[in-house]
Amino acid sequence: MVAKKLNPAEVEERRADMMAAVGIWKDRTDLPDTETYVRNLRGGTRFARLMAERKSDEPDSGDDR
Questions:
Q1: How many Å apart are CA 45 and CA 63, to the nearest integer?
Q2: Which alpha helices (DSSP H) does the chain contain, by range?
Q3: Tens of pLDDT along 11-58?
Q4: Separation between Cα atoms, residue 40 and residue 59, nearest integer Å
Q5: What is residue 62's predicted lDDT score, i.e. its pLDDT?
Q6: Rounded to an integer, what distance in angstroms lies between the CA atom of residue 19 and that of residue 28?
Q7: Cβ atoms within 10 Å, residue 37
Q8: Which residues contact 32 (CB under 8 A, 6 or more apart)?
Q9: What pLDDT band is residue 63 in, cutting at 50, 70 and 90?
């Protein structure tokens, strides 16, 4: 990939735009703290999948009447 060369004015403008976006949600009160928020997003189904796999691996009890 070839890097685009920017003139110094463009570089400074981009830098200012990026700095303006830093911390834009910093003072949000409608979101939990970051760690809790991310953990909830990652809340997976690993335990349920393991239990389903375990049940499928168990032999039948042979009690089919």
A1: 30
A2: 8-21, 34-41, 46-57
A3: 899 999 988 888 887 788 887 888 888 878 877 788 888 889 988 887
A4: 35
A5: 58
A6: 18
A7: 11
A8: 40
A9: low
